[in-house]
Amino acid sequence: MSVDEFDDEWDDEFVDDDVDDQTSEASTYSVSELAGTINDVLEESFDDGVWVWGEITGISNKGGHTYFTLVEQLKDGKRAQLNVNLWRGEFNKIRPILMKTGVTLENGLKVRVYGQLDFYAPFGKLSLVMRGIDPRFTLGDIAMQRDELIRKLRESGDYDRNKDVEWSPVPLRVGVVTSGSSAAWADFTHEIERSELGFVLRLADVTVQGDSAVSQVSRAIEALSRRSDIDVIAVMRGGGSRAELATFDAEAIALAIARSPIPVVTGIGHEIDTSVADEVAHRRYKTPTACAAGLVERVQHFVDVTEEAWRDIARLSTDHLNESATALTDVTHLIAGHTRNALVRADDRLGQRRLRLVSSSRGSVTTAATVLSAHTDTLRRRAPAVMAEHLRRLGEFETRSRLLDPRELMRRGWSVTRSTTGQAIRSVSDVNEGEVVVTQIADGSFRSTVSGEPTDERRTG
Asked: What residue spans of 404-442 are helical by DSSP H?
């Protein structure tokens, strides 16, 4: 088969005559030409620009230019997105608006922006070149979310829960949730140190803005709430844009504060700012410095009240002591008067009794003297006869004693026989044959040996 024949057959088999007719009439573009045409159509269709709203994600800065993606979550779980380019010159134009309204472009922020659509051929993607922003849309969305969360907290009873927690009149042990490198921490500690009170600070060093801020702050509050050495928790950050301060409108932080068994005080942002964290806290202060001043004021009030109470106690004690001293002096004078009177009366009675005693004593002495004299005469008269009688009786006792003396009996022939141990022998049964006995007579003693069997004369007679 020849090549020419093959080409004819291929044309007949694979080429649709209708399509061929249509493509012959359609324009053919190069990629750059098509990109230019698309931009012409976009410019013609959106010659006044276009407003687009969505949530910022993937924000970055390169060479002074800002890039991010606007995202819309769809009902089917998917999302629509549009790239946004904010050139440095345009950013400088809208910067005053952002500063005035306190809006900062950051991830998670819902915005309504204005610009022109542009199809960029080198990347083959459609972008919005941003020219302006509607800050009221962002602020309104933040306010709406905030109001919805507050309503939810009120319905659940969490809104007033921490406000009902009783806190110490001397909150010296303070758990602080803030960035340790921030001006808020510096201002807070300076105010505390300036008070010269015995505060003990325990810092939970966290990030107070950015993607991880909500989780770090809420976890720090929960951790401090579980400690037993904390009197109060202070949650703080310095000033910032409303979008930055929106971190403290997060539900996780609000619930951590509301459900803390320890009172939580806040010092967040500037005086005009109020966050959900402020709403549910036990007490809200305008700034970190004011938060420290509030704690100092509470402790100082307790010190002042205590010192005043001591002064009152001292004053009342002094008054009572003075009153008691006066009363004691009066009682002393009264007792002294009564004592003097009692002594005078006792002296009078004693004098009277002394006179009676002297008078009665004289008669008693006289009577006693008379009786004594009579007894003396009687004794003189009876003494010789009494003495003679006693001498006679003494002589009789002496004679009897002499007659009963064993030595007299021995002179008359009596003797006393004892064993060698000195025991008196009173019966023949007291000795045995061959036993040595000692016999005492008037002029001495001698030993003898018992021979033969002792006999009892009473039995033999």
From this structure: 406-411
